[in-house]
Amino acid sequence: MEMKTIDIKIKKAEERSYSIAIGSGFLARLPEVLKKDYPASSYIIIADAKTKNLFGKRLLLGLRQAGCKALLLSVPVGEGSKSQKRKTSLEEAMLKAGIDRRGVVLALGGGVIGDLAGFVAATYMRGIPYIQLPTTLLAMVDSSVGGKTGINTFHGKNLIGAFHQPKAVYADIRTLRSLPDTEIRSGLTEAVKMFITSDRESFVFADVHLAKALAKDTGILAEIISRAVRIKAGVVERDERESGERMVLNFGHTIGHAIEKLFTYTLLHGQAVGVGMLAEATLAHRLGALSPEDLALIRGMLKRLLIPASLLKQFAPEAVIAATKGDKKSVGGQARYVILKKIGVVEIKHGEFVQAVEDGEVAQAIRNI
Amino acid sequence: MEMKTIDIKIKKAEERSYSIAIGSGFLARLPEVLKKDYPASSYIIIADAKTKNLFGKRLLLGLRQAGCKALLLSVPVGEGSKSQKRKTSLEEAMLKAGIDRRGVVLALGGGVIGDLAGFVAATYMRGIPYIQLPTTLLAMVDSSVGGKTGINTFHGKNLIGAFHQPKAVYADIRTLRSLPDTEIRSGLTEAVKMFITSDRESFVFADVHLAKALAKDTGILAEIISRAVRIKAGVVERDERESGERMVLNFGHTIGHAIEKLFTYTLLHGQAVGVGMLAEATLAHRLGALSPEDLALIRGMLKRLLIPASLLKQFAPEAVIAATKGDKKSVGGQARYVILKKIGVVEIKHGEFVQAVEDGEVAQAIRNI
User: Chains A and B: how many Cβ contacts under 8 Å?
Assistant: First the structure.
């Protein structure tokens, strides 16, 4: 018999545009905003044990006072909660509470909560809306924007997950008041990463105002967050699924993730990425792409951010390289790197934003630090 | 401080159009087709213990002979494999084998395998491509097309999952040769469901040619499959995410899923849906929407498909209704129904394709069968 072929053309792109609001002290007004702009059969606040007490209970009360149904679920603090086990418990709790497709998840916390709660929303009844309420600087400048969600496995970070864009992001800088200095530095490191790959002028801005930022000056932090978010939003708009340009945001992450893995995820993400940035900037210099002056500027900035470069000395370069092989950017078992040309510009070869580099070069760069 | 707002506009719809090929005996040529049209760093064949032996091993060998890397993973036969546990084991096996983002999953089997393998592909490294290779009539007419993937939980079927469209569907009718008659009837029941809701002329075609179809006549089966797939493709094109029209395909499924749940998923899906169709057609008649003549036509067809109407008598109507409450179409704990107006046409009220119905009406309709 002849073959029949039927074509299916899925034309309509769903609406996946959204706003990121950055301000100070609006968390208290959020229930009314949510009720009006994002009506839901129930709001499911997902927090960790800490953000639950700091902000979650008050948000729950506020939502109920506004006449909304709401539920507050929490997981332990820390990267360990980005697990299938925690995801399943949250789903079970939501199913047991009868949450339907018109429920809206509120991800209240740092990157761990954003990634986990976003992934729960991505697969609950094949996808329900969620809103990011980042309470760490790192989450504000980076992970709350762009729709990457996921969990970790024994084999590495974020290996199981989904692209699921939030309906909105509300970054309330007042929540940063209680954040330890190490966390502020961790967030600034990610912001600086974006400036290094995409915007020299913002790098200079951060360099000039670093002391104020470290002292949690609200205006400076808001400026740094919105500059970082604007860069990220632009990249995500052009390449949501990380098939090209979005990989630029992985600068420092090939080695950063390897170090996190070697330290069994006990490091702060920003610290590991900072060390990775140092290693990968050194690599770019070694490959003849980055000038010594720009390398020095980057080193100086990372030093002021107290990036513990010595961490890299605790493992043989070969062990670090072995730990990069499971990276999601890998092709055929070979890790790939974002190579800096100068601050604000990365190398693009044959249309690719990441490049394969020989293991020997990477090892030597690590030794050179 | 004033609030800053940054907008993110994700414009580019990813390419999610694809073809469904229906023919006989082309499975042997598939490795060359895949190699040419869907190049991959590795092909991951996911099968159940039965399809692994019937077709999987040969496909694995063929891919390797064509010079491709390939891997064959299997799960036990049956609905029980649509579980988080099996999903996690498949992911672990893929990660261990070093499958990267350029891997392509081949879902070789019936609906269980398509849903499970599709969901694995949906979340592996935030989504990799997959191709449906349905080997049951039910999967060919229905589940392999449309991108619904997922697993079951204690609380109900398909409650965790994703919309993830396959890159292609290849339905080789020759694989149906070994399929038991009950499975053929189960598949025909789903095809008839689509005709009942959307295409009276195809309902008549199926009615006239039912004996040949039941005897696995290749030409008739191909015609029924392509008619059903054409209806489904049209609906999915217009409403991928089941926010409206696509819910029409749930005719028979509100009660069908409840019955499956009451029988702890030991029934064939098509049988449960057949019983559900009978109940929901009776409900439509009771509500004054469906004529007695059309109800009789539907009853006659379902009888020839050996739908075991008596299953409904094993539970009190109240128990059936209670089991519908967790349905994904529910809003505020109230199950909703596709109401037939006549064969080929469903009721649309206030733009909604599903309607809330009082529990008492549903109970009476179940008693009336």
Answer: 222
CB atoms B7 and A19 under 8 Å? yes
Residues of chain A with pLDDT under 70: 1-3, 10-15, 327, 332
- Strand B70-75 vs strand B43-48: parallel, antiparallel, or unpaired? parallel
In B, which residues are within 8 Å of A10 by CB distance? 13, 16-17, 165, 236-237, 240
**Main-chain dihedrals φ then ψ at residue A175, nearest 5 degrees:** -65, -15
Calpha distance B85→A105 (Å, rounded): 25
B148 is catalytic: yes
CA distances from A240 to A206, A247, B90, B113 (A): 26, 10, 26, 29
For the segment A171-203, what is each residue's pLDDT rounded down to a tens digit? 999 999 989 999 999 999 999 999 999 999 999
- The pLDDT, as a whole number, for residue B12 is 52
Q: Specify which residues A233 forms β-bridges with.
A: none
The pTM (predicted TM-score) of the whole model is: 0.90
Complex ipTM: 0.89
Q: CB of A301 within 8 A of CB of A195?
A: no
List the single residue in B8, B127, B149 with the smallest CB-CB distance to A236: B8
B13 contacts in chain A (CB < 8 Å) = 10-13
Angstrom distance (rounded) from CA B348 to CA B248: 10
Cross-chain Cβ contact B153/A95 below 8 Å? yes
Alpha-carbon distance of B181 to A275, in angstroms, equals: 63
Q: Are the C-beta atoms of residues A125 and A99 closer than 8 Å to each other?
A: no
Q: What pLDDT was estimated at residue B83?
A: 98
Which among A5, A10, A33, A167 is the top mutation candidate for probing chain B, defined by the most B β-carbons within 10 Å of its own β-carbon? A10
Low-confidence ranges of chain B (pLDDT < 70): 1-3, 10-15, 327
